Amino acid sequence: MSILSTRHLMTMDDLSIADIETILDRADLHAAANASGPGTKKHGSLRGQTIVNLFLEPSTRTRTSFEIAGKRLGADVINISGSASSIAKGESLVDTAQTLDAMDTDMVVIRARAAGSPQIVRRNIRGSVINAGDGKHEHPTQALLDLHTMRANFGRIAGLRVAIVGDIAHSRVVGSLARVLGRLGASVVVAGPPAFLPARPDVLGVEVAASVDEAIYGADVVYLLRIQLERLGSLQLLPSLREYARFWGMNSQRLAALAPHTVIMHPGPMNRGVEITQEVADSIPARVLNQVNSGVAVRMAIMELLLANCAEDLSPIAAKELVNA
């Protein structure tokens, strides 16, 4: 089933390979238009649509890129944070969703600490819903922008070797990205402290390396993750951040050992000096800002696909007119 018919994006499992290719191809067009200058960034494909960004968890990149994406498509975009909503007063997520539905909202983009929150909103609203990250579960639009960044760099996904290093067990990014990379023909190896590794790596379709150096050897992409301190609570899983940086961080010595074509990615926010040093974050192989740039284009593509009245609205002719506008 296509997202054109379901009109929601909850998890990467909602997307067929054809859906993913459609999103990435459409994002290519938006990326080109965004880079062409002020006159080509905006168009009115979603004029008259109302999009609510309901962010119940802090965010910089995801929230801002969704807002920019919606506005560039001509939609009316409303931002609601957890502290500024009635949820802070004790209102349930169900009541919040039903309230937004009563206002004829066309789309809700939700980020929340609790896994399953987007599904609750979906059941209580007539409009489209996008999961912008729910707990440790998934972050599908992050995975899509990562795929877009990789494809823009290598021209393909199939055959790539991707090393994911860091807090694997508590990352919703891994939940979305690792499995879809396998579906698209890439291989994934993960590395991190034992307490940060998944209990069932086979479910993610990944192999586990004993060290960072083993994981990054021969990798086309080194994908770094920060420690999810906000999800660990009072658990003390590491002796110190200094020790983590020494054994698991990406530093100049490990950078020098990479193949010349290898790129370094990070979903942000980066903790410089912990999982990534200053030199690596600002190095030529780093593609962190490319990921941010891809995020706007990819989210524009997803919003269009979910809110388009019919498939003809996104025809190749319309796409060509977009770039030449």
UniProtKB/TrEMBL annotation:
Family listed? Belongs to the aspartate/ornithine carbamoyltransferase superfamily. ATCase family.
| Keywords assigned by UniProt, alphabetized | Pyrimidine biosynthesis, Transferase
Example GO biological process: amino acid metabolic process
Keyword Transferase listed? The answer is yes
Domain called Aspartate/ornithine carbamoyltransferase carbamoyl-P binding: residue spans? 7-151
InterPro entries hit by this protein: Asp/Orn_carbamoyltranf_P-bd, Asp/Orn_carbamoylTrfase, Asp/Orn_carbamoylTrfase_sf, Asp_carbamoyltransf, Asp_carbamoyltransf_Asp/Orn-bd
Which EC number(s) are documented for this chain?
2.1.3.2
Q: What taxonomic lineage is listed for the species of origin?
A: Bacteria, Bacillati, Actinomycetota, Actinomycetes, Actinomycetales
Pfam families assigned to the protein according to its UniProt record, in alphabetical order: OTCace (PF00185), OTCace_N (PF02729)
**Where is L-aspartate annotated to bind?**
89, 172, 226
Against Gene3D superfamilies, the record matches this protein to: Aspartate/ornithine carbamoyltransferase
> Aspartate/ornithine carbamoyltransferase Asp/Orn-binding domain spans which residues?
159-305
Under the heading NCBIfam families, the entry gives:
asp_carb_tr, PRK00856.1
Keyword hit for Cell membrane = no
Q: Cite the PANTHER family for this sequence.
A: ASPARTATE CARBAMOYLTRANSFERASE, ORNITHINE CARBAMOYLTRANSFERASE, MITOCHONDRIAL
- Where along this sequence does the record place binding of carbamoyl phosphate? 61-62, 111, 139, 142, 268-269
Subunit composition? Answer: Heterododecamer (2C3:3R2) of six catalytic PyrB chains organized as two trimers (C3), and six regulatory PyrI chains organized as three dimers (R2).
- Gene Ontology MF term list: amino acid binding; aspartate carbamoyltransferase activity
Pathway(s) the chain acts in: Pyrimidine metabolism; UMP biosynthesis via de novo pathway; (S)-dihydroorotate from bicarbonate: step 2/3
Task: Output this protein's name.
Answer: Aspartate carbamoyltransferase
Tell me, what does this protein do in biology?
Answer: Catalyzes the condensation of carbamoyl phosphate and aspartate to form carbamoyl aspartate and inorganic phosphate, the committed step in the de novo pyrimidine nucleotide biosynthesis pathway.
> Which enzyme class, named as a word?
transferase
Q: Which GO terms describe its cellular component?
A: cytosol
Catalysed reaction(s)?
carbamoyl phosphate + L-aspartate = N-carbamoyl-L-aspartate + phosphate + H(+)
